[in-house]
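Input chain follows. Return structure tokens only.
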Amino acid sequence: MKTNISIRKATEKDIPFLIETIIAAEKSGTETIAYCSIFSLGKEEFTELLKNILEEDIQGQELCVSDFLIAEEKGISVGACCGWIEGENGTSSSLKANILHYFLGEEKIAEAQGIMKIADALHIEREADALQLESIYIRTEYRGKGILQVLYDTFITEAKKRKHDLKKAQIQLMKTNETALKAYDKLGFEIICEKHSDNPEILRILPSHHKVMMQKLV
């Protein structure tokens, strides 16, 4: 079912909705927020952390205002998605680790080392020159209206303006998030990489013990 939606780039005034988007995507259909579990943060602390990082607007990773698109219907923000070309302008999304280090401080990072090693079992390397999509969120009451398709199409169009030889788009998500898996499958994405952990501690940290990367050739 189609709807009358418009797509625009996010601005600083969208930060509250972007925080809602990132938290919903992080939960992946559960109540677990990995950042909170790993760094021993309450939800309010995490919200403040996101606000501070988003205000810096550091491009090329998933916590950046300028890399988000907003879907609107009648002036209401109903969906959002972050996307960037990995390695564009020599910048790697691995810089997010440095950003977290700066905003959380040496002590928090040191305390989280053991937990991060457990979470690293599900780490999937991002592929250079591929469009990376992250923090995809459509408000529940607006799902099934084709908004995800329009967001995706807009990202591809804009990315190809910057990189004419763009060949693929990729998404990482928890395999247990069946609703998201079906949505991306419908868009033409296929699973190309999977990571699984049998460590029982993983579910204390992450929403799932099984992560996948999906890909679509463009």
